[in-house]
């Protein structure tokens, strides 16, 4: 048992799982979870500039669900890694883009739980023979010693089994029906916070990549007392693909619901997954300066752009609404954009100090 596992009874512990009463008819119901996220994440008012009249936006800070283990993926991993351990796995394989937040969170969580982690990072043919570098999410993955392959999940699984290992495969983004429970649980959390703070949200907005977060959120929003309308902004695929994909996840829970009735999915991918225009990066900078909230350029940034665009084009749709925006994390991905953002951030300057101010010479001193 690793020292981390032994150190704290709550964090990392296995817990028997009881679904919310409104989700107890779904099937299969997971038997256990692993406590990986720092929950509940806060909800606070978000004073975004240029909102329609009387529209209030609140933000749920799932970016604060941890540090290395932060963002929306950790909620899904609580269920997925509990299953991996229950099946006696000794390693996990998962897949994502080169700056995948999901791969980073999986690599860290796996190590905490004494599982080896194999990451398949999708890259272009041109870059496949090159070292994928040490920036942002990749730095964390490599620090915790994840095995990084620019290969295929099935091939890797076969090889590991031949070597006598017991791999557990986590799909891209942790998005299958089991992972979706992470956001069914998030709805229970929002429901409790809304009751405590006496606030009724009309809408919930989130980024949608691999679809698992939206499947859980939208199903939970309909089944629970929240009844908020869920709006998803797609950051990598077409809305049609995502309606179909989330439908599969919902069917996998025997929920008898149509994804088109549960969620409104709009395209916000722009140039493509993890690719940004200068305007999008400028937007991230603008919102950070105006509100202190740092969005990531891949997920929450594109969702916020999509939401504000829709609010501008259809103000009556949002007028007097209370909207809850889910910040799905991804801060580390911003480090991959440093070169593109250099010209946008404030310039530094050296303070002019006149000769009467005493100086302490030497490097390595604190002051
Ligand atoms: C920061 C961030 N937000 C949102 C998403 C989308 O979440 P999901 O994959 O559950 O649809 C992703 C995943 O790509 C992400 O990395």
Question: What topology does this entry show?
Answer:
Elements: H1 3-7, E1 14-16, E2 32-34, E3 43-45, E4 56-61, H2 73-86, E5 91-97, H3 101-112, E6 116-122, H4 137-143, E7 147-149, H5 153-162, E8 167-170, H6 177-197, E9 203-208, H7 212-223, E10 229-234, H8 239-251, H9 259-262, E11 263-267, H10 278-291, H11 300-313, H12 315-318, E12 322-327, H13 338-341
Helix pairs in contact: 2-3, 2-6, 3-4, 6-7, 7-8
Residues 71-72, 101, 173, 175, 207-214, 296, 298-300, 328-330 line the site of pyridoxal-5'-phosphate.
Number of discrete helical segments: 13
Which structural category do the helix and sheet elements fall into? alpha/beta
Helix content: 25-40%
- CATH topology value of the largest domain: Rossmann fold
Question: Strand tally, please?
Answer: 12
| Principal-axes shape call | globular
Please provide the ordered H/E string of secondary-structure elements: HEEEEHEHEHEHEHEHEHHEHHHEH
Give the N-terminus to C-terminus distance in angstroms. 42 Å
What is Rg? 22 Å
Bound molecules: pyridoxal-5'-phosphate
Sheet with most strands: strand arrangement:
3-4-12-9-10-11
Low-confidence regions: none
CATH class of the largest domain: Alpha Beta
Largest sheet: 6 strands, mixed
The overall average pLDDT, rounded, is: 91
CATH architectural arrangement of the largest domain: 3-Layer(aba) Sandwich
Number of domains: 2
